[in-house]
Design a protein that fits this description.
The chain has about 300 residues and is an alpha/beta fold. It has helices at about 1-10, 15-25, 55-65, 80-90, 120-130, 150-160, 180-185, 205-220, 230-240, 255-270, and strands at about 45-50, 70-75, 95-100, 135-145, 170, 190-195, 195, 225-230, 250. The protein has a single domain, classed as Alpha-Beta Barrel (TIM Barrel), CATH 3.20.20.
């Protein structure tokens, strides 16, 4: 096992590390957590379940997931308020999932922010959305591939958030051209960006693959944040893998804690970090791995 630890620490990269974990642990059924440090300070992951509020049973099933999973509720939807109340009682984080204008021709639903909105109207829409969903700790964008490219609009959103203190921002990163995270940082907000979408496909095999990529990212960088949806396939996979995240060498933490960990890491490395080109966020889509990383996700 000493040889395994040496190999894992050799800096071979996300792909090499994930494949090595599979070979060393996955085939023989040994817990990946055995290779973590003895203090229990494992790399951290967070999970956000998006698009809640329209379907009661889907929401209730999502809320059954173990651990500090976060839940993002669309404003003015039939069950958002009640489900958010239950999430709060279960000590889960609640996010306001703000619809934002997209480059795609898809319906945004109520409470959406549009490019042509003046500042005061945008503030009123956000006020109404926040009033519609109780116990909100943070905000993330629903769609938004058009609006999140607009520095002025994102500046107005972050200004509004600054006036509603204590909220954090998560950029869902629906476009590589998003300036939302930069705007949040400029406003001094607690903020981070999504690393992995778990369920672009509802195929359980692909969902397991995406969870595997999340683990690989966390093992490489110290943290990883994934967004999923209340699809039956996604919930089925997550119910199994989140029962004991330490099996995969990680711990599941709240989004707020993940942001704090990233801020501390960024401060430690501030002298060596290079800014992203054009100020774009680092992870704009699921990062490509070929062949895909695999960390023995149970079926």
């Amino acid at each position: 096992m000493n040889r395994a630890n040496a190999l894992l620490g050799s800096g071979a990269g996300v792909l090499g590390r994930a494949l090595l974990l599979t070979l060393l642990f996955g085939a023989c059924g040994v817990s990946v957590a055995q290779s973590g440090d003895a203090t229990g300070k494992l790399p951290a992951i967070s999970i956000i379940i998006d698009d809640l509020g329209y379907r009661r049973l889907d929401g209730l099933r999502a809320l059954e997931l173990p651990g500090p999973v976060a839940y993002a509720f669309l404003p003015h939807t039939p069950y958002a308020s009640r489900l958010a109340g239950i999430a709060f009682q279960l000590d889960k984080e609640v996010l306001l999932h703000v619809p934002m204008e997209s480059e795609l021709d898809k319906a945004l639903g109520p409470g959406a922010l549009l490019n042509n909105m003046p500042r005061l109207e945008m503030r009123a829409v956000l006020d109404a959305g926040l009033a519609a969903v109780p116990h909100v700790s943070g905000i993330n964008n629903h769609m938004g591939s058009a609006l999140t490219q607009q520095p002025q609009a994102m500046g107005w959103v972050m200004e509004w958030m600054s006036n509603n203190g204590g909220l954090y921002f998560v950029d869902s990163l629906t476009t590589s051209k998003s300036v939302a995270l930069r705007s949040a940082n400029d406003a001094g907000l607690q903020a981070t960006g999504r690393d992995v979408f778990l369920d672009d496909s509802a195929d359980p095999r692909k969902i397991r693959m995406q969870f595997s990529r999340l683990i690989a990212l966390a093992l490489e960088n110290g943290t990883g944040l994934a967004i999923g949806h209340p699809y039956p396939e996604t919930l089925s996979v997550l119910r199994r893998v989140l029962l004991k995240p330490s099996y995969y060498g990680v711990q599941l933490v709240s989004v707020k804690e993940l942001i704090a960990k990233r801020q501390k890491a960024s401060q430690r490395l501030s002298t060596t970090l290079q800014p992203s080109p054009h100020g774009h966020a680092r992870y704009a889509s699921n990062f490509p791995l070929s062949p895909p990383a695999s960390v023995a996700i149970p079926r």
